[in-house]
Amino acid sequence: MSSARIANSVKSAVGGAKKAVGSALGNESMKASGMAQQAEAKVSGMASQAAQKAKGVAHNIEGAAQRTVGAATGDKSMEAKGHLNSARGDAEQKKKHPS
Predict the structure, then answer these.
(1) Which domain of life does this protein belong to (predicted)?
(2) In whole angstroms, what is the distance from residue 71 CA to residue 88 CA?
(3) 33 CB-near residues (< 8 Å, 6+ apart)
(4) Which of 15, 35, 57, 82 has the smallest CB count inside 10 Å?
(5) What is the pTM of this model?
(6) What is the pLDDT of residues 59-69, one digit of tens each?
(7) Does residue 99 fall inside a structural domain?
């Protein structure tokens, strides 16, 4: 697990604790702060997922170009690199990130 994901998990847990303590004490400010912290952690996780998917799309595009040029020029090495990049892109797009 990356350090960013760990920090995000900690932020969410701390936010949950603030929310619970705020609710128990009737402290609306603390409760709201905890809810905001949890929401911030969720948005950060979603942004990370979107970046990972974009990276995958880029590898798919690069792979398709390499396969096409490799096939057109008879360069089997480039064609193989294209297949590899496409597979990498597919894997990056399917990768799941726990919230």
Answers:
(1) Eukaryota
(2) 19
(3) 15, 18, 22
(4) 57
(5) 0.69
(6) 999 999 999 99
(7) no
